[in-house]
Specification:
The protein has 20 helices and 8 strands. It has 367 residues and is of the alpha/beta class. Among the domains are: 88 residues, Fumarate Reductase Iron-sulfur Protein, Chain B, domain 2 (Orthogonal Bundle), CATH 1.10.1060.10; 80 residues, no CATH class. It has a 5-stranded mixed sheet. Helix 19 links the parallel strand 7 and strand 8. Helix 18 crosses helix 19. The mean pLDDT is 92. It binds iron/sulfur cluster (2 copies). One iron/sulfur cluster binds next to helix 2, helix 3 and helix 5.
Amino acid sequence: MTAPFARLSDDDLATCVHCGLCLDACPTFRVTGLETESPRGRIYLMTQWKRGTMAFDEEQVRHIDLCLGCRTCESVCPSGVPYGRIIEAGRADVEDQRRPSLKRFASRVALRQLVGHPRRLRAAGELTRAAQKLGLTGVVRSGRMLPPLHPRYRPAREVLETSSPRYRVAFLVGCVMPILYPQAHVAAVRLLQIAGCEVWFPPGERCCGALFAHNGDLDGAKRLREANMRVYNAGKFDALIVDSAGCGAHLKDYYPDLKGRVKDLTEWLAEVGMPKPESQLNVKLTYQDACHLAHALCCGAAGLYSTLEPEMSNRILQEKLDDVIATGADVIAVANPGCQMQLEAGLRSRGSTMRVEHIAETLLRAY
Ligand code: SF4
Ligand code: SF4
């Protein structure tokens, strides 16, 4: 049995000098105005629990639950506080201390028994698609949030060649992305080929573990990381390409053996260069900087957050929608499936006709 709050690092917590410069950047502080819903408040709370100067209190765990894990605070912090590491360790420590709840138990079981197993997840995707056709998914909120499902993404071969390859890249197909937004993967892979990359789909690759870590299940995330590393170590590649910002951030932080080789699709294409586009897109477009790529203002999706904390998620979304709609754009391009689903549902609820699409789909239309 480990000591309480052993995962939280004293050194990490001590980097916060309580200056408060992060407060206005934090989406939950912005909508509540409460110190307890700010990065500084959360760090203070976790520090007191760790030091034993404040008794652990179930009520106060809400402040940890309500953190999106978006890490916007990290990018504005002048002291270099590693907030992402702190909140993930803090969440895992809190899970050891808190009373069990049905909601959290169900989310952990869903992650471990479904998301962590590609075959079961694919079967669930097929069932959901059938239920959508019968109009059965509209009865629950999470069902209404889903985009219309199409056949999942399946690479035609283990390796997709290109003429005169300049690079060989591995591609993260991932867990929910091939089911929710297969068209994004199709476009991403095509863009990689246009950029002169031979694309390898590592057989046996599983969920990267981001959803697990975000949910405080660091052991589950570790098991997936170990399984994936066995798969990656069996192949040779210049970079592992990810077209889901949340997964990319997790792979960069938690896969030290891939250091420097995990690249977001947009990052990689900018690095290796693309041929001149064949056509011009005459469309008014805005871009959603995903929290996990640019630490921009979060849309409230944040992995399972929109399911576990729908009220706060919706308050944050409304602020985002005001800004998005004010741009008057025809299209909003995104780099993360969670953002895409959240923005699609939000824009629908406001009666907006703005289209949401993955940045890869937008780019591909120019070729
Ligand atoms: S997290 Fe950074 S910006 Fe926020 S209070 Fe602490 S030191 Fe200041
Ligand atoms: S991760 Fe996001 S929601 Fe959590 S404290 Fe930082 S800015 Fe606020």
